[in-house]
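ok so I'm stuck.
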Amino acid sequence: MLEKFMHEWLYVSDYDVPVADNGFDGRAKINGVDLDIKYIAVVASSEYNNLPEWRLAFNLDKSKRIYVMRPNKEKNFLTNLPKKIFIGIGRPHFDLSGSIKEALFALTLTNKFDATVYYDEVANMANIMHSTLDYPAIRKKLSQIDEDTQLTLWLYAKDQVSMSSLANILMVHPKTVEYRLQKIKTVTELDPHKGIDLLTLISAFLKERTDKLRILETELQSFSNHMLPRDITTSLSIK
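replied:
not stuck anymore, here's the structure
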């Protein structure tokens, strides 16, 4: 019953009021959900089968679990997580699916230095990911570069810190940071130190990194294929 309710909740719109006679309000109360407040989605990923239990949660696939909670509850939740778990956190929404999609996007940008990523931290990057900007040739070249070098490019663009500060984050010598950025320039013929080149590089990086995001969103959609969104159901009944 709880899992069925969670799947139905995916289709509650930010501006849609649940229809009283469809029983959704009652099912929400039974499951401890207050539809008058916004909730956040926390998506956890681990290959070690060590994802914690939570009342409002369901599995997206074998390695990812979606947790739903009230804003700020995630702080205590995160402190009790075991190691080697990556976390993406969406913004508060009435629309559960909206927060989950944000959390999934944030999850794609986690790494060994940023194991937990809030969507708010990378929301501007989402605009690039959803844009028509695409550089297949650069994506291919970047994919041939080692992961540590790609990660250096990402943190260099995201954090905009000095070479020494970035070296401290990466726990390497500043010369290693510069060597990696030079490697990117050599392979792609684009200079990360130049703004217009950096935009192209990051656009290509994001497109490649989030390439499987649509697959995850399709998996999310598949949970409730047997149901219509209530706004569509309402429009059909009006006709």
